[in-house]
Amino acid sequence: MVSDTENHQTIPLRQRLTRLYYGRSTGAIRFQFALMVIDLAIIGFFLAGPYLRDRPSYLILDYAIAAWIAVEILAQLAASRTTRGFLMRPMTWVDIFVLGTLLFPQWLFNFAFLRVARIWAVAQRPIFTLMLRRLGLKEQTDVVTSFINLFVFLFLVTGFVYTFFFYAEDAGTGFIDALYFTVATVTTTGFGDITLPGPFGKLTSIVTMIIGISLFVRLAQSIVRPYKVTFPCPECGLQRHDADAVHCKACGHTLNIPDDGL
Fold first, then answer.
1. What topology does it adopt in the membrane (predicted)?
2. CA 20/CA 160 separation, integer angstroms
3. pLDDT for 205-261, tens place per residue?
4. CATH dotted code for 1-136
5. Measured between alpha carbons, how far is residue 99 from residues 58, 80, 117, 131 in Å?
6. Which of 176, 193, 198, 236 has its CA 20 to 30 A from that of 88?
């Protein structure tokens, strides 16, 4: 009789990684939760970067995180069913670019603000949706997702504005000014006490306002509209339905929406 340990050792590495990254077993959930905690710690380091950049330990932490992200990229590649599918994921290229900013901070420091996009990686992990369900927030999944999109956008723009317009100032003051400008612009408050100079600054403000308002509207829609589940209709392909729907509203086809509540 073969023991569980022996069976585990005979499973190919790719299959084991796939189970850990996408599985629902107790071990997989613990693994995904640990990855999420590490991701949050890395994001905290990125957000605190302007305040830590002058400390001797900054580069040590920088390269340690680079090593971790490199290992994770390779692990995700091994866990993916196809290399093409792995390369088609937007977060793959975000991680690769973030890795570049960590390995070559002297040359790519202007793009360090893209590191905040790692927050999207947290929201895309299966453990994130699972935690929302266990916390009783299943019906608020769209709201949480929309809020994360807005939050990421705010800090991406803040990082961009800080890098190209306030980098010469004191780290703390410059970052706060960039955040203040971003929030005032996205909310269209427009106090005017902090503005970006030149045509490039005006174009940055325009893009920030257009995308920011769109994300605000998306968040408002998620809050006020009824909760729906994603379940493609076999007949017409309609994606969104009421959680208790029996028939498709578009074509009347009988639906069999699984109840995956936990």
1. Multi-pass membrane protein
2. 35
3. 888 888 888 887 777 777 766 566 677 787 676 767 666 676 777 677 677 666 654
4. 1.20.120
5. 15, 19, 12, 28
6. 236
